Amino acid sequence: MGTVPVSGRDRAVLRAVAAGRCELGAGCEPILLVDGIVCADFSVAQRLIVAGLLAAPDPALPRSPAALTAAGREVVAPAG
In this model, does residue 51 exceed pLDDT 90? Predict the structure, then answer.
């Protein structure tokens, strides 16, 4: 898999997901909640899902814990 360009904001969201601080709300567009508050960047969840960094939410659940994909875990892994 090639390297996906990730902004600093996206990287911060991925770190919050890795820390277990995020949930995804299913719907016509996924909604990202960080510490129970809707993320102000409404497109971040969809952008990270399309990039293959964030797992899509379960459409059968109104809310579920956000989860990184293997590629998302690589992005937040410490360098070195």
Answer: yes
